Amino acid sequence: MLAALAGLAMVAGAASAQVFSSSPFAQISDLTTTSDTINVSGGPSNITNVNVIVQITHTWDSDIDMVLQGPNGYIALATDNGGSGDNMFTTRFTDGATTGIGAGTAPFDGNFKPIGTTATYSGPETFSGTQYSAMSGFSGSDSNGAWTLYIYDDAGGDVGTLQYWSMEFNYASDPNDPNSPPPPPTVPSGVGSITAASIPTGGMTGFRVAVTPAINPTSTGLSVSVDASSIGLGTINLLDDGINDDGVAGNNVFGQNVTVNAAPGDYVLSFNVTDAQSRSSTGNFPNLNIQTPAPSCPEGLNAVSFSNVDSFDGPGAGGNTFLDLGWTSTSDIIQTVHVSGRLIQDTPFTYASEARIRLHYTDGSFDDIQTFTDATWTGPLDQFDYAYTLPTPRHASDIVNAELFESFNDVTGAADSTWVALCLTYDALTGPTDPTAVGSATPSVLGEGDSTHFSVTVTPGLNPDSTNLAVTLDGSSIGLGSIQLLDDGVNDDGIPGNNVFGANASVPTGTSAGDYTLGFTVTDAQSRSAFGSIPVTVLPPVPACPDYSQPQSFSNLISDGAAGNGANSFVNLNFTGTEMATELHVSGRLVSQTAFTWPNDARLRISFSDGSFEDLVVFTEIGGFTTIDANDVLIPFAAPHAANTIVGMETFEIFDDTPGPDAIWQGLCVAYKASNTNPVITAASITPANTFPDVDVQFSATVVPGANPTSTGLTANVDAGPIGGGTITLLDDGIHDDGIAGNGVFGGTYHIPAGAAGGVYTLNFNANDAEGRFANQVTADVTINAPAQWEESIQGGGDAGETPDTAQVVSGSGTIDTIGGSIDNGGADSDLFAIDICDPSSFSATTAGGTGTLTDTQLWLFKADGTGVEFNDDTVGVRSSIDNSFVFDPGTYLIGVSGYNRDAVDSDGSLIWNNTPFTTVRAPDGPGAFNPVSSWTGTSATGTYQITLTGACYVSGGPACDPDYNQDGVADQGDVDYLINAVAGGDNPTGRNLDFNNDGVADQGDVDALVNVIAGGNCP
Fold first, then answer.
1. Residues 453, 441 contacting (CB under 8 angstroms)
2. Which residues partner with 36 through β-bridges?
3. Parallel/antiparallel/unpaired status of strands 891-899 and 830-837
4. In the β-sheet with 265-267, what is the strand arrangement from edge to edge?
5. Which residues does 180 contact at the CB level (< 8 Å), separation at least 6?
6. How far is CA 206 from the centre of its chain?
7. CA 356, CA 372: separation in Å to the nearest integer?
8. Residue 944's closest CA among 748, 738, 723, 792?
9. Taking the CB of the first residue and of the last residue of the chain, which one, N or C, has fewer CB atoms within 10 A?
């Protein structure tokens, strides 16, 4: 059967990439040829890629032979493939497939290479043009013309249908095929790098290119060449053999190391990547900087050279380079070290001056060499013979190593700078050197009778080395005569023989205060000597105790860290008696233990028998110090204390400057002064501070007795005149809500008159004692809220419920303008009130403008059965308002109030209203929108509220069940007719609530309930 249909062209991108298709639904019969032709017009004039898609239903696929005849040639797509399997749906014939059609299985859903040969084609047709073995045979020809698909069924018993076939030209993708076509071919590409981007002339670097092979087909025979003619090296062929610093052989990283002798300058070299498929690409290496040669080694002995050595961080850092200098001579004594080299910057933030060289010695000491003073720099820096004279000449063998470090770390985990070339030499000492010495006294500031340790550290003379060293100290200026210092490990000098000489001594009594310089002499057996001095300050006596009550003295109290630190000193204060101490007097001497601490840091914590304490500031001076004296410093207590209640003292620091003591009180003496004081009111309150008329409030005042003598007959009162009362006496008898009798807390109750005007009132609290002394006057405020018509706890008798069956019924007659109440229970509270909306056209409710401390409210309106009507969170700031947007009928409703974030939910815990938007009045829009309120979730702030209403009435007990709807004085059929008419939308001249059965809707149920009541039944 022959079916020749015009092809359908589908544009798949640019004009050169197109899809042409046909849907013949042609029958494939036994031993018969079926064909379909697509006449391509406007297709690509140059084919670079072509695929064929077929959708065939057929049982026993091996019956099918299939050939594509093009304008200039033909190719066999499939011949006898698939065995007893069924269908080719959907099958793409493409050179880019990994599996040939002969290796596939029915239904051949995917990409397959064509069979390629017509040798086993069984049909009677002959084909024109060249026979191709692959789809690529059509490449280079014109696509326009007739393309015919021939299908021959070469066996009996199984038939099928050619439903659809298409041709994809030049990498177009047929949208009817869910199988993605192979990607278009790419060219090989590479990324170039240089192992050393900055080298001197004659230096070595490596060129590296990481190659990405092309695909479709995958590159073979890759090669990389570098145009290095600009640096005099011609063409360089890079290799991927695992030998030329290119990593693992065959990993597509090509490399070659070269020596560069080009002139100094910046060079950009290009490379070319090619494959055996004649594809190629080019690229550039990063900038190659060729410099002049690094400085040569300086003059001197035993030159040692290094290259590419880094300095990372401060001394001892793991990334720093430690150089073995190999200077092992025991006869050479180094006087001067010479350094030459080139330094490059590894981070843009580092300074050249930060790159240092530390010489480590066998005795654990070191010397630091700073070869550059430059700050920021960009290019390499060269140093030519920097000469560093050692402070003390050293045997060459004393040098363990040289560490390259940074005085400031600019980047973590990487080098700050690198010596690309570094060379060190030294000059040997030719003549002898004298010994040198440094002395100290610990402590160096001390008073009469205080002990100190004198120490002198000696560096022996060299060439030859000093022997039989001796140290003598002249202490005659402070009465100590001549003192021999010893290096025997006994006189606090450490290890014997370490050239540290020491002796202990005490300042004689009567030594005059002042600064002294004690000279010392060092000698050796080679008749060489050294001289030095040790400064000592002798202080005057510690200030004497202040002349006040019960002075108590202490010595060597430690001030270490914050209050409570176990290293601080804690001492008991044994004051006796009950007289009231009003101020503490302090004398003493504070001695610094670190250069960083300030006198102002050192504080005294005075503790009292009731567990309280006061922190006292003795010194106001800031900045470093050595010693500082306090001479009768007066520090008042915040409140008077009985002397026998002052029980302890801690010396502490408000800022801990260093591990170990910050300062030591060499001597410290405290005494107190008792003074006459008036009684003091320390606190006054009114509870509740926010209330209403006709409510009791509690007054409270805390009074501290006067001192010297202690107050007797204390009395307290409050002037309640502003809120309708006179002077109210407060009592400390344990009865008037004042706690324990005699504890200094005075209390009393006052009933605010029912007619008191709303407002904020300030009341004065007073106290006096039998000694005629008056306390300071203290005030407290009380807010009286104008009463609402309906108060939750007054008219309602308690907390309004949260569910329809526990809602508080606002019962009465007439209109209701305000409802007041409070959110309690820690914010886990919401209040529901039953009201009648008697005029829906004017109904509104708001918490804005009313009294109350609960500012962030939410308002809710429900039908009587608890289903939602409308809600608002914020309209006036964070206050709430609702209106009649969703109120259409009069009747009984539930109005609810809660604080923000306490929300109504149904029996499944789903929100009836979503949380947002905040400012609009909304009908229920949450996941539980159609369900009645069952409970509430979340907590809020607590406080009082007031709701202002319009169009609302009290819920009256009788009229809601009054069957006389037409108000003619009798309950009969006329009332039924009246209700039927009104429910149907007629007039309601009596203004009755049509929801007779209170189910939230006016309907037939209300008529049935009315008929039942008129017939003698119960009210619903």
1. yes
2. 149
3. antiparallel
4. 198-200, 288-291, 265-267
5. 173
6. 43
7. 8
8. 792
9. N
| CB burial string 795-818: b at 16+ within 10 A, e below | bbeebbebbbeebbebeeeeebeb
3-state DSSP assignment of residue 794: coil
d(CA 469, CA 497): 10
- Interatomic CA distance for residues 159 and 146, integer angstroms: 26
Please give the average per-residue pLDDT across 275-299, as a whole number: 90
* Cα dihedral sign, 882-887-893-894: negative
pLDDT tens digits for range 79-136:
999 999 999 989 999 998 999 999 999 999 999 999 998 888 999 999 999 999 999 9
pTM for this prediction? 0.36
Smallest CA-to-CA distance from 36 within 127, 121, 149, 159 is with 149
Which tokens is 342 given?
Answer: 């080139």
Q: What's the rounded Cα separation, in Å, for the pair 837 and 864? A: 11
Distance CA 668, CA 633 (A): 11
* Tens digits of residue pLDDT in 645-690: 999 999 999 999 888 899 999 899 999 998 778 899 999 999 988 8
Q: Count Cβ atoms within 10 A of the Cβ of residue 877 and give its class: 0-12 exposed, 13-18 middle, 19 or more buried.
A: exposed
> From CA 248, how far away is CA 241, in angstroms rounded?
7
Calpha distance 291→864 (Å, rounded): 93
pLDDT for residue 787: 66
- Bridge-partner residues for 66, per DSSP? 78, 151
Residue 372: name the closest of 387, 354, 353, 350 by CA. 353
Residue showing tokens 């140093």: 383
Beta strand 223-227 with 235-238 is antiparallel
Handedness of CA 299, 303, 307, 311 (dihedral sign): negative
Two tokens at 875? 């309209």
SS3 state at 530: strand
Nearest to 153 by CA among 133, 124, 127, 126: 124
Contact criterion met (CB below 8 Å) for 386 and 355: no
Rounded Cα distance, 352 and 293, in Å = 20
- CB of 216 closer than 8 Å to CB of 97: no
When computed from its CA atoms, the radius of gyration of the chain, rounded to whole angstroms, is 52
Structure letter (DSSP) for residue 396: G
Q: What are 515's two structure tokens?
A: 């600064």
How high is the mean pLDDT of the chain?
A: 90
Beta bridge partners, 531, equal 521
* Bond from prior residue into 464 cis (ω within 30 degrees of 0): yes
Residue among 472, 381, 375 nearest 421 (CA)? 381
User: In DSSP terms, which residues pair with 482 in a beta bridge?
Assistant: 474
The least confident of 231-235, 475-479, 782-786, 941-945 is: 782-786
**Percent of residues, the chain, with pLDDT higher than 70:** 96
The count of other CB atoms within 10 Å of the CB of residue 640 is: 22
Helices (H), 950-1016: 973-983, 1004-1014
The pLDDT of residue 168 is above 80:
yes
> Burial, 745: exposed, middle or buried (Cβ in 10 Å; 0-12, 13-18, 19+)?
buried
Average pLDDT over every residue of 151-171 = 93
Q: What type of residue is 119? A: A
pLDDT value, residue 430:
82
